[in-house]
From TrEMBL:
Keywords: DNA-binding, Transcription, Transcription regulation. InterPro entries: LysR-type_TF (IPR050389), LysR_HTH_N (IPR000847), LysR_subst-bd (IPR005119), WH-like_DNA-bd_sf (IPR036388), WH_DNA-bd_sf (IPR036390), YidZ_PBP2 (IPR037402). One of its GO terms (molecular function) is DNA-binding transcription factor activity. It comes from the Bacteria. Residues 10-67 form the HTH lysR-type domain. CDD domains: PBP2_Nitroaromatics_like. It comes from Trebonia kvetii. This is LysR family transcriptional regulator. PROSITE patterns: HTH_LYSR (PS50931). PANTHER family: HTH-TYPE TRANSCRIPTIONAL REGULATOR LEUO-RELATED, TRANSCRIPTIONAL REGULATORY PROTEIN. Belongs to the LysR transcriptional regulatory family.
């Protein structure tokens, strides 16, 4: 087992070098971004290789690729560098008109569609030099949230199972409801415009963020709603996106649950039927979540107020 590295004994400049090397996967381009010579960047890579006991970057088929450890470090170094930059940028004062701070938010493509544009304009007007880093939710909402909430300014997500962590705070942003979406020529619609639970049970499903055979499925919003309807759907397509769902429904006999705000907008430009969901549909409550360590940060408090005020105008 390798000994634990003490922070005082580390050259923290290597953190920045590591971030650029794994981002660019090129010593030459990393050197350009770091503002150093190529030999200096190569020397940093050599030191990193010795420290981790791994090549990190290897040449395959004429280009550099990350080793498995390099891939793992690529995820971690981004979060660590953002946290360090935020730490040293901390101040008791915050002026949005002059600040060039970068704010990182984690959102699903659905929430970006609902509030991304108005939020973008609000930030631009109030803080023209501030920067936004929008990270898309990947795979399990709960896993992304629990692992990374300390390293981002916030996450927009519903309060599903797995989100009630002791060090988090939240504020409600907006509400929506589940609807069913089918191709406009789906034969199940021949019997009328109302869907029944047994109709849904007999159709193949498109399910976003569904992980087959794993615990915590009810923490995925769509699957949680299906569980409340006592449905055990036959999943035909699993997709890591809400916006992608209609593309795998139109022209097929598949069905999906979608948020009404998203479904009605997409149905206007495709052969998609939007129908009431049978049974008792659970309301969708989207909230902003953040770690309690940001409670007294003036910049973060400003961002929270701006997001909440923006959501009220939706």
């Amino acid at each position: 087992m390798r000994p634990v590295a003490h922070l005082a004994n580390l050259d923290l400049n290597l953190l920045v070098a590591l971030r650029e090397l794994v981002r660019e996967r090129s010593v030459t381009r990393a050197a350009q971004r770091l503002g150093v010579t190529q030999p200096a960047a190569s020397a940093s890579l050599s030191r990193l290789r010795r420290h981790f006991g791994d090549e990190l970057l290897v040449r395959e088929h004429g280009e550099y690729v990350l080793t498995p450890l390099g891939e793992q470090l690529a995820e971690q170094v981004e979060a660590v560098c953002v946290a360090a930059e935020r730490l040293f940028a901390a101040s008791s004062q915050f002026d949005p008109a002059t600040s060039d701070r970068e704010f990182t938010l984690v959102m699903a493509d659905y929430t970006i569609m609902v509030m991304g544009e108005v939020l973008s304009h609000a930030v631009q007007r109030a803080a023209p030099r501030a920067r936004l880093h929008i990270r898309l939710v990947r795979e399990s909402l709960a896993a992304e949230y629990s692992d990374g909430i300390r390293f981002v300014d916030g996450m927009v997500a519903p309060p599903s199972n797995g989100f009630a962590l002791p060090d988090t705070r939240s504020a409600e942003l907006f509400r929506d409801r589940w609807v069913c979406v089918l191709d406009g020529d789906n034969p199940v619609l021949d019997g009328g415009s109302a869907l029944r639970v047994r109709d849904l049970a007999g159709l193949p499903w498109v399910a976003p963020y569904y992980r087959a055979g794993e615990r915590g499925v009810a923490s995925v919003p769509v699957m949680r709603q299906l569980a409340l309807l006592d449905l055990q759907p036959r999943i035909a397509v699993r997709v890591e996106s809400y916006l992608a769902v209609p593309y795998f429904v139109t022209g097929t006999d598949r069905v999906a649950l979608m948020q009404e705000r998203l479904a009605t907008r997409l149905a206007a430009t495709s052969n998609l039927r939007v129908l009431e969901c049978p049974g008792e549909a659970e309301p969708i409550v989207e909230a902003l979540w953040w770690h309690r360590q940001f409670e007294d940060d003036p910049a973060h408090a400003w961002l929270r107020r701006l997001i909440v005020e923006t959501s009220r105008r939706l």
